[in-house]
Amino acid sequence: MPISHSYAEQTTVQCPHCGNSGSADIWLILDTQERPDLAEQLQAGTLHKLDCKTCGKEIGQVNVPLLIYRPSSEKQPLIFSPADQASQEQTQEHVQQLLSRLYNAVQADWQDSWLEQLVVVSRSQLISSSQGSPSDLQAILQELNQPVRDMRAMGRRVELCQQALILVEGKNNEQLWTALQFELGDSLIQNPQGDRAENIEQAISAYEQSLEVWTRESMPTPWAESMNNLATAYAMRIHGNRGENIEQAISALEQSLEVMTREVMPVKWAQAMHNLASAYRDRICGYRGDNIEQAISAYKQSLEVRTREAMPVEWAASIKIVAGS
User: Fold this and answer.
1) Of 19, 84, 158, 168, which has the highest C-beta tally within 10 A?
2) Is there a contact between 6 and 71 (Cβ–Cβ < 8 Å)?
3) Where in the chain is the domain with CATH 1.25.40.10?
4) Residue 323's pLDDT band (boundaries 50, 70, 90)?
5) What whole-number distance in Å separates Cα of residue 282 and Cα of residue 296?
6) How confident is the model over 150-164, as a mean pLDDT?
7) Pair 5, 101: CB distance under 8 Å
8) Average pLDDT of 307-314?
9) Which CATH number fits domain 215-325: 3.50.50.60, 1.10.10.10, 1.25.40.10, 2.40.50.1020?
10) Mean pLDDT over residues 240-252, rounded?
């Protein structure tokens, strides 16, 4: 008999209305293909709603983490929704425990790439996304098209991107899915809310997923922009080895500059050259003197476009760094 992917813990609850006690299944892992009935309860917002089996009255909602497994989804097979008010440490512990249990249940079908595609959303986001319609997706896209006037709104943009990614799944719109991953990465990098290190990790994952579709051969310009932003994320990365992160940033920037040339995209080329200079300035590997020379050369090249007259703010930033190199 095959092992069930869906998983519930059984607990005993006492009804505050009639005082009787009874057992209840608290679902922690849901395979939407295996248990469509539970998926419908999730959509209705009743998956974790407990009713007394004796008097029929509502006992309340159970606050627990939930891991969604969607076998038919190629892009986002795993969605994790933490328990409300859970700390960062508690959330990490919960997701690791549930992923381990799912791994043991799935066995040979498990793919390590699922971990990179893992989406983390709040319970309200998860429920609203599961209830979503094409009009809901359109409303989200319209809001995302609005200019950002306050960096504090980046948290909202992250939520919108995550909801849209769930809604667009399975609609055979690969380009929209990819553009949303790119926008999610940008929003996470700029988001002042939440855990900074985790935001950057999620941004790196989003950019890398966008690069699976936006390849250099099929879409060179979006590919170069994704590579440039991926480099920025690695340069800012808190986790991992600092030296290796900077090497990743330099590699991504140098690749993007093969497409993002001065002749075709002068402003973005100058920004990328400025970023490359900063990466060489901070470089740990290699000979320090050579790295500084590389940095100065790249800064000076960027200043040929970022002139005092055309881009005074950017020019001042580059001049200040060159003077201190």
Assistant:
1) 158
2) no
3) 215-325
4) low
5) 12
6) 89
7) no
8) 80
9) 1.25.40.10
10) 97
